[in-house]
Specification:
The two termini are about 30 Å apart. The protein has one domain. The protein is an all-alpha fold. It is globular, with a radius of gyration of 18 Å. It is a multi-pass membrane protein. One of its GO terms (cellular component) is endoplasmic reticulum membrane.
Length: about 190
């Protein structure tokens, strides 16, 4: 039997009907859906490569759109946290520095993933026919699968703790679920 008392308490601090919260949740779910649908469409049709004149140009364009969407998602996430109450018991140095440490580890995974894969490796180049010479098995891929996704999730978790935000924690769960679905879809 599962003890749901902690979730009930968390939901007591979160207004899931708040427009900012809904927009944040939708933007979180939209991003991986968008890039997976567009990448698969490109793989089937090569339409973006034709429009942009080359697979590299098309991949760089999609990557730029993904980066912009990620900025929008992060902004919506932050605004949703700011519009919801803080958990007073967490608004302390210990929680703040724990969140900072978790965000730092997440940032390490995201940046090292990007450096290991490069721009086209990070932003779905394989769907454009831009293949790497061999599978990347160095850090951080030798530590965990999908370090970009889990690093990003850790950043949001840390950000939520730094702001003592129950809404942020709930939105972080949406991030984790969205990435889990994306990993299943991509696999």
């Amino acid at each position: 039997q599962v003890d749901v008392a902690a979730m009930v308490q968390l939901f007591g601090y979160v207004d899931v009907t708040d427009t900012g919260f809904i927009v944040a949740a939708l933007s979180i779910a939209f991003n991986p859906l968008f890039w997976n649908v567009v990448a698969r469409w490109e793989h089937k049709t090569r339409a973006l490569s034709q429009v942009f004149g080359s697979p590299h140009a098309a991949c760089y364009c999609l990557g730029t759109v993904i980066l912009v969407l990620n900025c929008v998602r992060s902004h919506c996430f932050t605004e949703a946290m700011k519009s919801q109450p803080k958990l007073e018991g967490w608004d302390c140095h210990w929680t703040y520095y724990s969140g900072l440490a978790i965000s730092a580890v997440g940032t390490l995974f995201v940046i090292s993933s990007f450096l290991a894969l490069g721009f086209t490796g990070t932003f779905l180049g394989d769907y454009f026919g831009i293949l790497m010479e061999e599978k990347v098995t160095s850090f951080p891929f030798n530590v965990l699968d999908n370090p970009m996704y889990w690093g990003s999730t850790a950043i949001y978790l840390g950000w939520s703790l730094m702001h003592a935000s129950p809404a942020g924690l709930l939105l972080t769960a949406v991030v984790a679920i969205s990435y889990t679905v994306a990993v299943l879809y991509e696999g």
